[in-house]
């Protein structure tokens, strides 16, 4: 089966970085079946300045360069902690975040390679370039993984406004774009509040 990919229109709160990041994230899906996932239209959750419960999934590991970013996300983002609770609920799934190799110059800042065993998602390798938008990209890519866990067919939703397909054949979803931006806002709000309190 040919790989299926995601690309993002994700961007940071700052307009300039958002423009540079647009359409720069990718997921390459190595699956043994054609069912991919997307969630239907749901109401956006309100932005909350702090996370009530920090969830560090034992099935999520990351390169040391991403550890400070993840720590900020866990402390600051209820949305990211919700994502992490979903990962914990899928104990067969192993998620790894690693840094893109310097010699590679991909056209996107993030990609995720997914693998299934007996129809069950068991592996997700998220590869990110060095970028100031790591918070948004990590949340965006994790949401693509959760889309896979939800089992909705992306192809069936193309044209709905929730899923679209790029010229290169890659899929993108409003859900992952919105969640990435929400987590970035939550982390930014918490960071701003902490700076004011100093």
What does this protein look like?
This protein has helices at residues 15-21, 67-76, 78-88, 134-150, 154-157, 174-197, and strands at residues 4-7, 26-30, 60-62, 94-99, 110-117, 120-128, 163-165, 171-173. It is an alpha/beta fold and 198 residues long. It has one domain (4-197). The strands form two sheets. A six-stranded mixed β-sheet has the order 1-2-5-6-4-3, with helices on one face. Helix 2 (67-76) crosses helix 6. The longest helix has 24 residues, at 174-197. The chain is globular and about 50 Å long.
Q: Report the average pLDDT across residues.
A: 77
Number of helices: 6
What is the count of structural domains? 1
* Largest beta sheet: strand ordering: 1-2-5-6-4-3
* Radius of gyration, CA atoms, in whole angstroms: 16 Å
Strand content: 15-25%
How far is the first residue's CA from the last residue's CA?
Answer: 54 Å
What is the H/E string?
A: EHEEHHEEEHHEEH
The helical percent reads: 25-40%
Unreliable parts: 7-51
Largest sheet, strands/sense/barrel? 6 strands, mixed
Number of strands: 8
Structural class, please?
alpha/beta
What's the shape? Answer: globular
Topology record:
Blueprint: E1 4-7, H1 15-21, E2 26-30, E3 60-62, H2 67-76, H3 78-88, E4 94-99, E5 110-117, E6 120-128, H4 134-150, H5 154-157, E7 163-165, E8 171-173, H6 174-197
Parallel strand pairs: 2-5, 3-4, 4-6
Antiparallel strand pairs: 1-2, 5-6, 7-8
Helix pairs in contact: 2-6, 3-4, 4-6
């Amino acid at each position: 089966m040919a790989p299926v990919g995601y690309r993002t229109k994700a961007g940071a709160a700052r307009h300039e970085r958002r423009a540079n990041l647009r359409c720069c994230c990718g997921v390459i899906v190595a699956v043994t079946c054609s069912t991919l996932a997307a969630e239907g239209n749901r109401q956006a959750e309100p932005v909350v300045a702090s996370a009530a419960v920090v969830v560090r999934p034992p099935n999520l590991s990351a390169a040391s360069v991403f550890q400070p970013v993840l720590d900020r996300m866990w402390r600051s983002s209820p949305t990211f902690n919700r994502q992490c609770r979903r990962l914990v609920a899928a104990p067969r799934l192993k998620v790894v975040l690693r840094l893109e190799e310097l010699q590679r110059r991909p056209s996107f800042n993030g990609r995720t390679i997914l693998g299934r065993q007996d129809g069950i998602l068991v592996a997700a390798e998220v590869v990110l370039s060095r970028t100031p938008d790591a918070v948004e990209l990590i949340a965006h890519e994790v949401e693509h993984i959760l889309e896979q866990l939800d089992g909705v067919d992306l192809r069936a939703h193309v044209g709905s406004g929730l899923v679209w397909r790029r010229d290169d054949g890659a899929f993108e979803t409003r859900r992952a774009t919105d969640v990435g931006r929400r987590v970035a806002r939550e982390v930014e709000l918490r960071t701003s509040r902490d700076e004011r309190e100093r």
